[in-house]
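User: Could you go from structure to sequence for me? I need the amino acid at each position, not a summary. Structure tokens:
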């Protein structure tokens, strides 16, 4: 077991002088906190015998019904409450699924980069992660098929594909419509289970929610959802939607792990969905995050040195940035913290040591002015690193030689696809 690159930063980002572009903390202050507080108080005073007691290992029936209503917004209209297992955040759901399906040595296919919390779960299960390349249109189906063929030829047992199709963490990109269908067809052809992790799907800026992978295949896709991004991360309520045979195993695993999910938080989420204008609240969140995304992209375009590239998310929380050639985000991190700006190095999002030229920037928590200041500080750190590398590039035949410093290229943005797991630029998809 090893520390998460994100968790390791907590003591730093809590310092008031540091602008944190690191943690993906939702803007809970945008909630109607007085109404939410009164709602929870009424729950305890009026239903304390139920809300403060043990509950079912599968979760509260009323909440499971409302979860089905939420998933219907993404085209999952055939889900039954009996197929839903309530979890302590979708992180526990991912852990349960991995416990049920994986033995030590099994192979899991995952996008490169991939969510750091998932990599921790897979590592604890002693599974082997094989990264699949992605670009601006999400996971590349051709790369997925190549990975499946390589694993089959090597006699490796692939248990499932893990994917975050909407507003990817950390890459910020969204899986295109044609690719969604292509991935389902590959899963059917290769008898592949798909774990769809979708905490951000309702937080799109420019279009209605896309249909989930689970909406296309009810038997081959297990869906993970969460209220952490659309309501409250502190309540720790998520869920798994799985076929009944899998659901039974998940409930057994839940009972062995935590006995049951907390009753009070489940009742709170169910009451919130019953009594509060939660769809309108999601719109409030998306407009707030859109403003912060725009501040991030505008600042990056204005301030970053040439050779720096980044993704353009149309929802969610994150921008994935690639540094100019030769720079290492992990080695640069202490100098960034010293300049009072924090980010997450890209190496934390790979299981194979890739990602050193990358970093994840999160725009969900800071105010727009803080974002602009954070990007300004980060740009100065990157420029200082480039100056340092220019000095060492001036070394000729092993001896130091005084040379004139070359002029810095004009600031601007060079759009390029994401970096694949081997460090090579992935090809752009014309369907993006």
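Assistant: Here is the amino acid at each position, in order:
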């Amino acid at each position: 077991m090893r520390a998460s690159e994100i968790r390791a930063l907590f003591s730093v980002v809590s310092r008031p002088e540091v602008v944190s572009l690191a943690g993906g903390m939702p803007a809970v202050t945008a909630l109607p906190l007085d109404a939410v507080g009164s709602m929870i108080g009424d729950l305890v005073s009026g239903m304390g015998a139920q809300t403060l007691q043990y509950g079912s290992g599968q979760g509260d029936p009323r909440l499971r019904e409302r979860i089905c209503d939420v998933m219907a917004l993404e085209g999952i209209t055939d889900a039954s409450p009996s197929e839903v297992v309530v979890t302590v955040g979708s992180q526990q759901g991912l852990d349960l699924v991995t416990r049920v399906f994986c033995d030590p040595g099994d192979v899991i296919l995952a996008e490169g980069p991939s969510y750091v919390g998932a990599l921790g779960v897979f590592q604890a299960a002693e599974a082997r992660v094989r990264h699949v390349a992605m670009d601006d249109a999400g996971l590349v189906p051709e790369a997925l098929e190549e990975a499946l063929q390589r694993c089959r030829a090597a006699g490796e047992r692939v248990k499932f594909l893990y994917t975050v199709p909407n507003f990817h963490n950390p890459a910020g990109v969204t899986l295109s419509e044609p690719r969604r269908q292509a991935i389902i067809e590959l899963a059917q052809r290769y008898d592949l289970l798909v774990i769809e992790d979708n905490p951000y799907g309702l937080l799109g800026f420019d279009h209605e929610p896309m249909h989930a992978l689970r909406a296309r295949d009810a038997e081959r896709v297990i869906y993970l959802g969460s209220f952490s991004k659309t309501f409250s991360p502190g309540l720790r309520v998520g869920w798994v939607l799985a076929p009944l045979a899998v659901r039974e195993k998940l409930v057994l695993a839940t009972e062995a792990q935590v006995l049951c999910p907390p009753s009070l938080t489940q009742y709170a989420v169910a009451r919130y969905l019953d009594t509060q204008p939660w769809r309108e609240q999601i719109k409030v969140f998306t407009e707030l995050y859109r403003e912060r995304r725009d501040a991030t992209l505008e600042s990056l375009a204005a301030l970053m040195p040439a050779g720096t590239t980044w993704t353009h998310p149309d929802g969610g929380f994150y921008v994935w940035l690639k540094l100019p050639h030769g720079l290492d985000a992990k080695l640069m991190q202490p100098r960034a913290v010293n300049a009072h700006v924090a980010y997450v190095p890209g190496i934390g999002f790979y299981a194979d040591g890739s990602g050193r030229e990358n970093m994840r920037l999160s725009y969900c928590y800071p105010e727009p002015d803080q974002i602009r200041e954070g990007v300004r500080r980060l740009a100065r750190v990157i420029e200082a690193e480039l100056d340092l590398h220019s000095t060492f590039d001036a070394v000729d035949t092993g001896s130091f030689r005084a040379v004139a410093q070359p002029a810095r290229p004009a600031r601007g943005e060079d759009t390029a696809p994401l970096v694949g797991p081997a460090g090579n630029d992935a090809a752009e998809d014309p369907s993006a």
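One structural detail worth keeping in mind: The chain is about 40% helix and 15% strand.
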